[in-house]
Every structure is written in C-alpha cells, then in structure tokens.
TrEMBL record:
Organism superkingdom: Eukaryota
Protein's name in the database: tRNA (guanine(26)-N(2))-dimethyltransferase
Keyword presence, Transcription: no
Family: Belongs to the class I-like SAM-binding methyltransferase superfamily. Trm1 family.
Listed GO CC annotations: nucleus
Length: 546
C-alpha cells in the first residue's frame, strides 16, 4: 500500500503498537513517538534504495553476478531524450527473467543472479549506524538485491529490540542483524581490510560529524558512504562558529547556502579521509526539504590525496551585492609526468567589492570540485524512470535527478535571480530572458536543484551586473530614492560594458522545466509528502462553489 499507512490490527502486534507500511516493509512502532517515524524522509529512503541498487549493480557485475530488480524486464539502457510511452505491461514487468533477449540468454550462462530478500554470498555488506526502528534496513533487505548482510545498529536497547522484531516480522532475519552499540565503535572495530563494510548509511538526528572519522575508515575500498545532515541552520550560516567546530568550515548566510551546505559536508569528509590516505568521489549530493544527503565513494591512494588542497576553497562573499569569489587552498600544475604542488596565490578580491564597494565575508573552506558523478546519476535516473512503480516518490526522484543532470558540473554555487534584481530595486527579469542574455554573451548557464530561481553560470559577477544594468534601462528605478552609498546606487551609476540581448533562445529552457517535472517540494501540510498539483480548472471551480 502507500507509504506511511498505519494500522493496529496486524497479527503479532503487542498492545499499544502500530504498523507503518513504507515501500515493501511493514514496521512495528510503539504508538506515540517513542521511536521516531518521519514520513517526510520517505523520499530520502526511496532515493537511497535506488542509489544502493545501482551501486550493487556495478559492484556485483564485476564479481560476475547480475542483480534482478523487481519491475525491471531487462538490463536497463536508457536514453533520456526519449519519452516513455505509456505504462508497461504489468505482467511482463514482474517477471524479469522470462522476457530476455537472445544475447542475454548467452550472457546468463556466465552470470549468477541475485534477487531481493535472499542472502547473496558474494554480495555487499551494509551497515546502518543509527537505525532507530530498523525501517531503512528492512527496506534494503526487501528491496535491494545483491546484499550479503545488513547490520542495523542503534545505541538504544529499546531500538535494538524493535529492530530484531521488525526483522522477524518482515522475514529478513537471514540478512538483517540488529546490534546495540556505539555506532563509532562498531565502525572503528571494522577498520581491517576484511571487516570493512561496502555501504555505510548514517542518518542521525542532527549532525553526523561525530561519526565521520570512523566512517571514512570503516568503508571498503571504493565503498559507498550515504550521509544525511539535518543540522541545516548551522550549515546554512546561522552559527558559523558552530559549523567550524563540527565540519572545519565557516558557514555564511548567503543565497547559495543550500549548495554550500553540501560542499561543507563534502569538505569535512574528504579532509577526514585524507588523514588515512583516502579521498572521496561524490556520486550524488542533494538538498531537499529540511536536510541534505550525500552519496560518496571512498578510495585509497597517497598520490591522489596530494591533490586534496587544490580541491577545497575559501569563499569571499560581498555583503552588499552578494558577488562571490573562490580561493583554492592549494595549487597543482602538471609538469610532464609529475604534478608540482605549491601554495595558492591570492586573495581574489580587494578590500572592497569592485561592484558595490562593500566588504567581504570569509567562508569555507568548502569542496570546490563536482558534487555529482553524472554517469552514475544517469544510471539511477534511468532505472527509476523505466520502473516508476518501484517507489512511491518516483516522480519526485525523477524531477530532482533530472535537474541534477542539468547542473553545470564545474561551476560551484550560484546566484539567485530575484536577489540580483532586488539588490538594485528593479523588477525581476523573466528567467528565460535572463538565461538567454547570458547565453548570447557567450557564457554557460544552468539551474540548480537546490534553489528555485538559481542562476548557475561561469560568467563573472560583473557580467551579471551588466545584464541587470541593461534590464534596468528599460525597467527604470527611481534614482532619487537610492542612497549614494547603497549597492543599488553604486551598481547602477556604472555604465554596462556589455550590451545585453534578451531575445529568448531555445536552449535557455532546460528539459526538466519543459517537461514540468516535480522539481521542488510543495510547502508542508498536514500529511506532508510529494503529491500531484491540483489542476487549475478545479481550483477555479472550488473558488466558485466554496
């Protein structure tokens, strides 16, 4: 049934217990809130199942094992340019083995297959460090093929007892082990090459920072770390000093704070991994609702770790107009076969902003490299879009991942269009016209999944202000109202060096916007979860009759 459904008439219930159904799992909960069920996180759990499935598909293929995912008819090959035509024939899609192509029959001879709910001897070992009721781990056992074992750990005795009951209730005790220990100790004891976990999922209440040192050591070579942060106030600039103590990075209040939060946790992970000659490769980093979630691979290699300084950057953010500049922590130059490392030179800004003459705030260091692996994201997106009934939040996963695939990979952070226009007090240009102006000027531009009106671009701030100056000429601002020292006055009193062209270009409108995908969460309501938007016609009828 649909996620988050509760009932209290299930066989095997103790007095005062309810059952929550999500994905393929039926989870026993003490009524009230003793062990916390959060329906808003269903998207996080669905996405995690989708990501671990693709990770398992890759890893197990190398071991000669083919995973069988319920609802998949064939090996997934997806070209995003093609639209799906209608829903697939249900019968066929539930029998992945029968509908094989001829060449697959030949492949099958060498392939062992792995199905959901069965223990795969050469499969992945998974640890959920802070498992509460065990919901997430039970879902892995029932929905992700190719797992050898899952350890669901929680420090609370009540939680550990509940995890055991939920493993039995869902008939997955042969894969899922409950554990009642300090999460860091579980990981520290698994640092040996043979004991390490292939996947470690940390979803704490609040900050994961106390567990990161152990996690980067206890994950296997090329293994997957899945980490949630819900301490968004700290990471988004409300208390930079607290953020520094947890993550070694100063957060600052800014329009790009959601992406900056992703780059702060990635900075912290890479820095802690580097201590052990390890480094991270981010696969997918998302900011959704009130939390952020990162999926990273961890690898070992002293030579690559030497690049670490040049992957991180300080951030100068102008308090007046929001222009920002990155300053890498180190410099690397290739000389033939060798890399030469040196100190970075800077700073990239003068004492005052060149556009509005106000001062800069210093933030970071943050991770300044790509935050997603596009090939991997395409695989996850492809698998979810050809198998839409697998998850209740499929539509939203598709929307978010489509936007992720459109993001400029090599451009950290973004500007926000309505902030640019409100800085100079003029009305906001339509997004398509503004993006077109950037394209006409020879720059690249994209949206960001992390913020609704984001402008992610390789154009320097000066070009953005020039485009705004040109826009203001046909949408004039009353100059006499502006104080001489205001950013608005200082920006508008300079003449644009560029003649902006606002003629709309076809390539200014990205696919995800054209296809009206569910890209952003609607505001919280009583039972908050991704839902279809009401059709405009109905709204008008309701207004007439209510």
């Amino acid at each position: 049934g649909p996620g988050g459904q509760t009932s209290s008439t299930e066989p095997g219930l103790l007095p005062g217990e309810t059952v929550v159904r999500e994905g393929k799992a039926a989870i026993l909960f003490p009524s009230a809130n003793e062990v916390f069920y959060n329906p808003v996180q269903e998207f996080n759990r669905d996405l995690t199942c989708a990501v671990i499935t693709e990770f398992a598909r890759e890893q197990l293929a190398q071991r000669g094992i083919r995973i069988l995912v319920p609802g998949e008819k064939d090996r997934v090959v997806v070209r995003l340019s093609e639209e799906k035509n209608g829903t697939e024939d249900q019968e066929a899609s539930e029998q992945p083995e029968k509908e094989q192509q001829k060449e697959e029959e030949d492949d099958k001879k060498e392939f062992i297959t792995a199905s959901v709910g069965e223990r795969c001897e050469q499969g992945l070992r998974v640890l959920e460090g802070l498992a509460a009721s065990g919901l997430r781990s039970v879902r892995f056992a029932l929905e992700v093929p190719g797992l050898k074992s899952i350890t669901a750990n929680d420090y609370s005795a009540k939680a550990a007892a509940l995890i055991s009951r939920n493993a039995q209730h869902n008939n997955v005790s042969h894969i899922l082990q409950a554990s009642q220990r300090d999460a860091s100790m579980v990981m520290y004891e698994a640092r040996g090459k043979k004991e390490r976990y292939d996947v470690i999922d940390l979803d704490p209440y609040g900050s994961p920072s106390p567990f990161l040192d152990a996690a980067v050591q206890a994950v296997s070579e090329g293994g997957l770390l899945c980490i949630t942060c819900t301490d968004m106030a700290v990471m988004a600039g409300n208390s930079g000093e607290t953020c520094y103590s947890k993550y070694g990075s100063m957060s600052i209040k800014s329009r790009y704070c959601h992406e900056m939060a992703l780059r702060i946790i990635l900075h912290s992970l890479d820095q802690r991994a580097a201590v052990y000659q390890r480094y991270i490769e981010p696969l997918l980093s998302v900011s959704v609702d009130f939390y952020i979630r990162v999926f990273v691979r961890v690898k070992t290699g002293q030579a690559v770790v030497k690049n670490s300084a040049s992957k991180h950057a300080l951030l100068y953010n102008c308090v007046g107009c929001g222009a920002f500049h990155l300053q890498r922590m180190g410099k690397k130059m290739s000389q033939g076969k060798h890399m030469k490392y040196s100190a970075a030179t800077g700073p990239p800004v003068g004492p005052n902003c060149e556009h509005c003459r106000q001062r800069h705030q210093l933030g970071g260091p943050i991770w300044a490299e790509p935050i997603h692996d596009m090939k991997f994201v395409q695989k996850v997106l492809g698998a979810v879009s050809v198998n839409p009934t697998r998850f209740r939040t499929s539509k939203r996963i598709e929307g978010v991942l489509s936007m992720v695939t459109e993001e400029l990979q090599d451009v950290p952070l973004y500007y926000v269009l309505d902030h640019l226009s409100s800085t100079v007090h003029c009305n906001t240009p339509p997004m398509l016209q503004f993006r077109s102006a950037l394209l006409h000027a020879g720059y690249r531009v994209s949206l960001s999944h992390a913020c609704k009106n984001a402008v992610k671009t390789d154009a320097p701030a000066g070009v953005l202000w020039d485009i705004i100056r040109c826009w203001e000429k046909s949408n004039p601002v009353k100059r006499e109202r502006l104080s001489e020292t205001s950013p608005a006055h200082r920006i508008l009193s300079a003449e644009p060096a560029l003649q902006a062209c606002f003629e709309i270009r076809e390539d200014a409108n990205p696919q995800s916007r054209k296809r009206h995908l569910t890209r952003f969460q609607e505001n919280p309501q009583a039972n908050w979860g991704p839902k279809a938007r009401a059709k405009a016609g109905w709204v008008i009828l309701l207004m007439l009759f209510c």
